[in-house]
Amino acid sequence: MSEPNKGNPVYSRTDTSKVSLNPDDWKKILSPELYYIARQKGTERPYTSVWEKNHEKGTYYCAACGNPLFVSDTKFDSGCGWPSFYAPVTKSSVIYLPDNSHGMSRTEVQCGRCKSHLGHVFEDGPPPTGLRYCINGVILDFEKAKEKESEYKKKND
Ligand SMILES: [Zn+2]
To answer: Residue ranges of the domains in the chain?
Structure first.
């Protein structure tokens, strides 16, 4: 894996302590694209994320802080143009806020660790939850499941 988070001191996949930075500090450690989505509640153009059609097994982490957000088992093809999941990794992985911007009544989803904007959740998802977490791919960091890696290693040893 490349090091997209080099120079980001708050990025950790094991530290669960909350991250709270002011906008200037976020701006210093995030790429402009990530800053726009994560901290300015931007939305990437639909069908632009490499993760939208990703069917590999693994975990999706918050690209701003490394918090595990979703696993591939809960990912589904919603056809909406953004990576979609029906449940977060754990209840505390994400937090919810009412969003009444753009003349719509929606529920915003933020990272439970660093409060970065992830996307929105809608009630038209598949069972078992009936929810559709519509998430910007820019804010997701994907890592393939370890199991698969070791299988691969075995074959190539
Ligand atoms: Zn985060």
So the answer is: 23-144
- Report how far ligand 1's centroid is from the alpha carbon of 151 (Å): 30
pLDDT tens per residue, the chain (157 residues)? 445 577 899 999 999 999 999 999 999 999 999 999 999 999 999 999 999 999 999 999 999 999 999 999 999 999 999 999 999 999 999 999 999 999 999 999 999 999 999 999 999 999 999 999 999 999 999 999 986 555 666 665 5
Q: How far is the CA of 35 from the centre of ligand 1 (A)?
A: 12
- Residue that has been written with the tokens 């802080």 in this structure: 65
- Please indicate, yes or no, whether the overall pTM of this predicted structure exceeds 0.70: yes
**What token pair was written down for 57?**
């097994």
Q: Which are the catalytic amino acids? A: 134
23-144, what's its fold?
2.170.150
Q: How far is the CA of 65 from the centre of ligand 1 (A)?
A: 4
**Run of H or E including 94:** strand 94-99
